[in-house]
Design goal:
alpha/beta, TIM Barrel, globular, 273 residues
Length: 273
């Protein structure tokens, strides 16, 4: 089982790192000194594009900064990618006009590589600032190639399917090592777990992942190498999975302010919406 990798400076210099990272996303949104609040459209699949956009609008005007596609929503018959993109961005513009706040839509472009690039071009032409990619599913090479395409949008990295690699303690690669690779390749947001809620992972483990994607110089410990990130931008950590309002204080205490607190059912299932 791979517990860590130390990247030398010569290797780090060959990769871009995050294009925006924590400072860039904060500059983009105007959210300066607090966590970001986000939600995932629920139900995760089944809504037609028009209803999907309406749910996003309700979340934005309700005070949330970020709305995200679910990781398994791509371009199904009931919710085609192009229609979802344009309808949801119309609602995003409306929410920004009504609230006076910047809003973020994380649309999932995960697909075979050529189609993923076509979708990214549509998103960029439509003026959206972010794309979402299921980075484990598309693989390291596709993510690296995507970064080399030169798109100007920030990347929200979902880790769907990571447990097939990270979960068994006797083989595979731990999540912290994957997170280091994703920082090197240049994602801007990365799901790391919650330390509370339903996701697997202790507070110690999740904290070590956050340190690895946000610190410029990580000290050695009994299970990891020292790592100097040579000035690469920090990655915005995403805490998502089984969260509700009662978890917020604990998540901030454990992970700090440079996070997205993302609740799906915890928002949509709340009595007050």
């Amino acid at each position: 089982r791979v517990l860590d990798i130390r990247f030398p400076a010569e290797l780090i210099e060959k990769y871009p790192g995050p294009g925006y990272g924590v400072p860039g996303v904060r500059e983009m949104t105007g959210v300066r000194d607090c966590p970001f609040l986000g939600t995932i459209i629920k139900p995760k699949i089944g809504l037609p594009a028009k209803m999907h956009a309406e749910v996003a609008y309700e979340a934005w005007v309700g005070g949330l900064d970020i709305v995200k596609d679910d990781e398994n929503l791509a371009s199904q018959d009931f919710n085609r990618f192009e229609e979802r993109l344009y309808l949801t961005l119309e609602k995003k513009d409306l929410a920004e006009e009504e609230t006076g706040e910047k809003k973020i839509y994380l649309i999932n472009i995960t697909s075979p590589y050529r189609e993923m690039i076509r979708r990214a071009e549509l998103v960029q032409d439509a003026g959206n600032e972010f794309v979402m990619i299921d980075v484990v599913i598309v693989g390291f090479a596709s993510l690296q190639s995507y970064r080399e395409e030169g798109f100007k949008m920030a990347i929200h990295a979902h880790r769907a399917m990571h447990a097939a690699i990270t979960r068994n303690p006797r083989h595979g690669i731990n999540m912290r090592t994957l997170a280091k690779i994703y920082r090197l390749l240049g994602v801007d947001n990365l799901h790391i777990g919650t330390a509370v809620g339903k996701m697997e992972g202790s507070a110690t483990e999740i904290t070590s992942i956050r340190e690895e994607i946000q610190m410029d110089s990580v000290p050695a410990s009994n299970d990891r190498f020292p790592q100097n990130w040579e000035g690469k931008k920090s990655v915005l950590a995403v805490a998502s999975g089984g969260l509700h309002p009662g978890h917020v204080s604990a998540v901030v205490d454990i992970l700090g302010k440079d996070i997205v607190i993302q609740a799906g059912g915890g928002v949509h299932g709340h009595p007050e919406g």
